[in-house]
Amino acid sequence: MKHVELNLPVGVRESLCGFARSRYPHEACGLLIGESTDSLVEVMRAVETRNLLAGEAGDRFEVDPGEHVAAQRVARDEGLDVVGVWHSHPDHPARPSARDLAGAWEGWSYLIVAVDADGVGELRSWRLEGGHFVEQELRDGDARGRGNGATAQAKAVTLA
Predict the structure, then answer these.
(1) CA angle 46, 106, 26 (to 5 degrees)
(2) How far apart are CA 9 and CA 16, in angstroms?
(3) Kind of pairing, strands 81-90 and 119-129?
(4) Is 31 helix (H, G, I), strand (E, B) or coil?
(5) Domains of the chain in sequence order
(6) pLDDT in tens, 24-35
(7) Reading across the β-sheet that carries 40-49, which strands appear in turn?
(8) Which tens digit of pLDDT belongs to each residue from 62-74?
(9) In angstroms, rounded to a whole number, what is the distance separating the alpha carbons of residues 2 and 21?
(10) Cα 62–125–50 angle (5° rounding)?
């Protein structure tokens, strides 16, 4: 099993937290744009997309395919790629559900933002390997690994 870290700059974290708070109590979703190697996923930005399942019973999400294609086209024009998906878990922990597992693709990062009426809780990221999710270590550097690159413990990321 290979260990792949995820570098999530502070500005991207703030954007993700803002997206999750603004859509609460519904599930928000979108794409992670950046670069990926065998050992590190560098997120340059997060894009919010329309959740096609917003308002349906249960906490579920589906990224709008048209917005996915558009984001991928813009990313490629910038020399980047879609490296993963993010979504919020309203009133639930930032752990993948059975539905998350059923829709996951190997090689992508799946970042989950826990959010409740008090705000954003933890951010955690996962990758599908061998049919099950493995948690990624989150790093807290600026884009392209500059800065201190210190490992971030994603257990208590709360923004005012």
Answers:
(1) 45
(2) 11
(3) unpaired
(4) strand
(5) 5-152 (3.40.140.10)
(6) 999 999 999 999
(7) 132-136, 119-129, 109-116, 81-90, 29-36, 40-49, 5-7, 138-139, 151-152
(8) 899 999 999 999 9
(9) 33
(10) 25
